[in-house]
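Deliverable D4.2, example record:
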Amino acid sequence: MFRPGDVIPVSSPYLVRHQQHRDDHEVFAMAGEEFPKCRLCGEAVLFVALDGSVFRARDPLMSDPDFAPAASASNGA
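Output generated by the structure prediction step:
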């Protein structure tokens, strides 16, 4: 399991486990970047590497609104 701030070790699908506000979901994360904090649950989010052969999600990690950079987040979020 990985936490926000950990360097993503391999480009791969990951299961994201939020503390409370959202069900688990899948994202694709790129090696060398850092796992981000969630805008709502902060560091109370975990990332679990998945087997790429069964990966179903199509969205990259940073396209998810919970992890989008603050500069691109909408005001009032």
